[in-house]
Structure formats: structure tokens, C-alpha cells
């Protein structure tokens, strides 16, 4: 009769061992998956930011190559400063808004500063509504500074 009791304890031991092993493998797999997905998300954001930077630099280079022969005071760069509530808008939306605004103003790169009208510059973006991820976002120009670098302070409101 001692034999069945020993077999029952051995079976219980192996059942607990395999249950712990399976639970450990599942927990480890879930944690590894979470780490990998987090890293993929951060790399995706980094890639989007770098692509945005590359397109801006290409546009600047092209415009400056066109105006390289003139000795006039020309627009060389565009800088956008966004004023927003961080709780309402995420980083990818901010990068998309910056990219869109800079694309609107890239036609001015390489132009003589005397020929650029600041009032018209503000009208390009002021009170513009953009739709992203189910949100309506209104842009408003707060301040503008025009020199070799066009600086725009743009307020973002989620409607």
C-alpha cells in the first residue's frame, strides 16, 4: 500500500513542476513580447522624426542651391515652435503638424526677404483646421519673426 501513496506524491510533484514550468514560459514570453513591442514603437517614432528631418533638409538644400548665386538677403531656414497642451496631442501628431506646416512654407526658402509679405505668411496657416486620428485640430499663428530664419509660433487647439 505504500507504493500507491508514493506514486500519488510523485505524480503531484511532476504536475506542480510542469504547471510552474508552463506558467514561467508564458510569463516570460509575455514580458519579452511587451519589451519588443515597446522598442518597436520607439524605433517607429525615431524613424518618423528622422524622415521628417531628411525631407526638411532636402527642401532647404534645393532652395539654397537655386539662390546661391545671388548676394541678396534670402530666407535660409524655417523654424516652427508649437504651443499646445501635452495631454491632448501625442508626439506623432506633433511631428505630423510640424511637417505639414514646414511643407506649406518651403516655397519661401531661397526667396529674398524683402519680397516676402508677413501678413500673407500668417494667412497660410492661421485658423487652419487639420483632421488627424479622429481629432479636429485648429492652428493659429501667435507670433512671426522674419529674418534669414522664419520663426513661427503656432498655437494648437483640439476642437
Strand arrangement in the largest pleated sheet: 1-4-3-2
Distance between the termini: 79 Å
Give start-end ranges of low-pLDDT stretches.
none
Which structural class do you get from the secondary structure elements? alpha+beta
Radius of gyration over all CA atoms, rounded = 29 Å
Give, in order, the helices and strands. Answer: HEHHEEE
Number of strands: 4
Total helices: the number is 3
Quaternary organisation: single chain
**Coarse morphology:** elongated
Protein described:
This protein is of the alpha+beta class and 159 residues long. It has one domain. 55% of the residues lie in helices and 21% in strands. The chain has helices spanning 2-66, 91-105, 118-125; strands at 77-83, 128-132, 135-146, 149-158. Strands 1-4-3-2 form a 4-stranded mixed beta sheet. β2 (128-132) and β3 form a beta hairpin. α1 (2-66) packs parallel to α2 (91-105). The longest helix has 65 residues, at 2-66.
Briefly characterize the structure.
Helix content is 55%, strand content 21%.
